[in-house]
Amino acid sequence: MAHVIDNPVLTVEHLSMRFGGLLAVDDLSFMAGRQDITALIGPNGAGKTTVFNCITGFYKPTEGCITALHENGEKFLLERMDDFKIPKIAKVARTFQNIRLFGGMTVLENLMVGQHNPLMIASNYTFGGILGLGGYKRAEKEAIEFAKYWMAQAGLMHRADDAAGDLPYGEQRKLEIARAMCTKPKLLCLDEPAAGLNPRESEELNKLLLFIRNEAATGVLLIEHDMNVVMGISDHIVVLDYGKKIADGTPEEIRNDPSVIAAYLGVPDEEVEEVEQEIDEIEEGASS
Amino acid sequence: MEYFLQQLINGITLGSIYGLIAIGYTMVYGIIGMINFAHGDIFMVSSFIALIVITALGVTVSTGLGMTFLALILVLVSAMVIASVFGWTTERLAYRPLRGSFRLAPLITAIGISIVLQNYIQITQGARVKPLQPLIADGYTLMTRVDANGEFAVQISNMQILIIVVTIVLMTIFSLIIAKTSLGRAQRACEQDRKMASLLGINVDRTISTTFVMGAALAAVAGLMFLLYYGVIDFFIGFIAGVKAFTAAVLGGIGSLPGAMLGGLVIGLIETFWSAYFSVEYKDVAAFSMLAIVLIFLPQGLLGKPEVEKV
């Protein structure tokens, strides 16, 4: 029943993550399309953030294989890379549930930190930067232009020189996404980007994410509880419960999947067998 | 009045040297929240390197001005490079393996490294003080006063001018690096959130190493200046100068670059004025009392940002 994708940007194969006696992620396999918005959903404690932490190098998975694929066919085994190389070389960026901006720095500087690596090379590891060589100045100017481009997309132009910590919550969220985009990722992983946003801000977030998919041609993998966001913009949904994948498909398929409904809403005790039977039938139907 | 001016000049010179060392403490504290107690000894080692290179080049006061200048640049560069290697190695061997450990662990190794460096120099260079003939002589007389007590002249030596100018230039360069370059932004990012910085592709370990190297390079400049100014060094100068510079960093607000410079100046001035008007014996007591008083009323230091309690 795995949703097959022709041109994935990320493949996760048989991923397991064990913390002592707790199996947080259990034999999870899924793919994320290159120009898709893939949503990872599930009840609290289903292991979604653990999957993110494995993808971005916070945890070394107990078992399994996580691969990032670029258009030119290059493959990167993420579970074997140092954490800073995942955004630098494999081009996978992420944000967190809680906001982690550099609060003391301005909005523009936050976006410039995202472009650290190309600037470091352009400045000959700072020596050229001190001497003010032409190459560095040009690179710096380009970096500012690129930062402005994402500031405009996130609607933060008027805030460029304000300290990031002084922005209202909704703008901080968008700045985080813009900063992640400044690393020029192939895959952007967002952990609950809509958490705490009001409906208008959530609408703006949807637009920004669609822009990232359509115009910046970047794959998005997101964890989200806000079903407006999930059902509204995702192309593909993976549902986790207790670390296991219980469904994988388009929003339509997921909406009508009884196992997903059972996991989310729970079922009364007397109906458990009934539902299980139904699930078995569907699984048989899918495998046959 | 003339006496005051003279002491002011002396105080600023001394303060510049403290300030240069204090920057190393403050930058390292800013980025990894650790007091690098071995920093004063890097300063001491670099003054020995400077002495060795000067002796090897055979520079004396009779060498021509141009040649002395060239030689001193060579001395400065070699002292900076070798001190940087010391700084980098210290970080790599003594602090990086302990980065995930409890907070006290790197502090203890720092003290260990400090003792190692002191003993290393004591064994290889001997415990006696090493003198150096003054290389940069002369100076300018700014004003003279003749009265019943005799003649009193306010003088600024070429050496003092050199120290103050070099300090201003280096401070400007380093402030620009921190404020304007990508490296500086990365350092500030690591200061605030190391994990997030690494998720934006910043090599955090390398950024921290660079910070140690920058601090050590500045300490090397201070080491050379100290050697040229005082003309005597021994294996223990790092301790006293280190404690003073650390005091300066705390006084100015640890983690703040201009704070370190200001703290250095304040400590240098207090010491000089106290020795000039009261007693030389109690100059350190005066400097450290000042620290205690400032910390009681301004716990974050003169220019430090107050710690905001997160709820």
Brief overview, please?
The complex is a heterodimer of chains A (288) and B (311). Chain A is α/β, with parallel strands linked by helices and 288 residues long.
Give structural notes:
The complex is a heterodimer of chains A (288) and B (311). By secondary structure, chain A is an alpha/beta fold. Chain A contains twelve helices and ten strands. Chain A folds into two domains: 1-91 and 184-256, P-loop containing nucleotide triphosphate hydrolases (Rossmann fold, 3-Layer(aba) Sandwich), CATH 3.40.50; 102-183, no CATH class. In chain A, helix 3 (107-113) runs parallel beside helix 7 and helix 6 (134-153) crosses helix 7. Chain B has one domain (2-147, 158-297): ABC transporter involved in vitamin B12 uptake, BtuC (Orthogonal Bundle), CATH 1.10.3470. In chain B, 46% of the residues are buried. Chain B is globular and about 70 Å long. Chain B contains eleven helices and four strands, in the order ααααβββααααβααα.
Topology:
The complex is a heterodimer of chains A (288) and B (311).
Chain A: E1 8-19, E2 22-33, E3 37-41, H1 48-55, E4 63-69, E5 75-77, H2 85-88, E6 92-94, H3 107-113, H4 116-122, H5 127-131, H6 134-153, H7 169-181, E7 187-191, H8 199-214, E8 219-223, H9 227-233, E9 236-241, E10 244-249, H10 251-255, H11 258-265, H12 272-287
Parallel strand pairs in A: 3-8, 3-9, 6-7, 7-8
Antiparallel strand pairs in A: 1-2, 1-4, 4-5, 9-10
Helix pairs in contact in A: 3-7, 6-7
Chain B: H1 2-32, H2 39-57, H3 65-95, H4 104-125, E1 130-131, E2 139-147, E3 150-157, H5 158-180, H6 182-192, H7 194-199, H8 204-230, E4 232-233, H9 237-252, H10 257-277, H11 283-297
Antiparallel strand pairs in B: 1-4, 2-3
Helix pairs in contact in B: 1-5, 1-8, 1-9, 1-10, 2-3, 2-4, 2-8, 2-9, 3-8, 5-6, 5-8, 6-8, 9-10, 9-11, 10-11
